[in-house]
């Protein structure tokens, strides 16, 4: 009996058409089911670069609350209790109610003390509370 030998031209190949059909169907499915969500953003008022502005006459004094690396609170170079921040700020606001508050905080301080300081300033009725990093000269 004679055997037929397959030639190289008769080799079977893999038909890619069904796989491509499935890929396109999946692509269409993902495009259709994707929900496009508009993310919430926060508008930030950037300071102007106008150099012609003159500083205001008689600016209000700045009230500085400092928090060191041991989470000790200082106002006017004296140590105070974090719960006494409000009373001290109210005393200084009696002089000028427009005064802004600056909370200087060391990067190693406990966050709870910073939050307490900002909350106490807001409770004292301060219209503007700023937070800055306390940079020490080591």
UniProtKB/TrEMBL annotation:
- Where is the chain membrane-spanning? 20-37
Q: Which PANTHER family match?
A: BIOPOLYMER TRANSPORT PROTEIN EXBD2, EXBD MEMBRANE COMPONENT OF PMF-DRIVEN MACROMOLECULE IMPORT SYSTEM
Q: Which Pfam families match?
A: ExbD
Presence of keyword Transmembrane: yes
Per the record, the GO terms for biological process are:
protein transport
Q: Which GO terms describe its cellular component?
A: plasma membrane
UniProt name for this protein? Biopolymer transport protein ExbD/TolR
How does the UniProt record describe the way this protein sits in the membrane? Single-pass membrane protein; Single-pass type II membrane protein
Keyword Ligase recorded: no
Identify the Gene3D superfamilies for this entry.
3.30.420.270
Keyword field: Cell membrane, Membrane, Protein transport, Transmembrane, Transmembrane helix, Transport
Q: Name one GO molecular function term.
A: transmembrane transporter activity
Q: Organism source for this protein?
A: Kangiella sediminilitoris
Q: Where would you find this protein in the cell? A: Cell membrane
Q: Which family does it belong to?
A: Belongs to the ExbD/TolR family.
């Amino acid at each position: 009996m004679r055997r037929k030998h397959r030639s190289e031209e008769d080799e079977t190949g893999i038909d890619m058409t069904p796989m491509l059909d499935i890929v396109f169907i999946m692509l269409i499915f993902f495009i259709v089911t994707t929900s496009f969500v508009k993310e919430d953003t926060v508008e930030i008022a950037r300071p102007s670069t106008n150099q012609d502005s003159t500083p205001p006459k008689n600016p209000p004094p700045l009230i500085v609350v400092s928090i060191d690396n041991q989470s000790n609170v200082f106002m006017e170079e004296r140590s105070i209790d974090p719960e006494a921040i409000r009373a001290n700020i109210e005393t200084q606001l009696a002089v000028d109610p427009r005064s802004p508050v600056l909370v200087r905080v060391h990067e190693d301080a406990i966050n709870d003390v910073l939050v307490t300081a900002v909350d106490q300033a807001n409770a004292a009725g301060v219209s503007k509370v700023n937070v800055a990093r306390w940079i020490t000269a080591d």
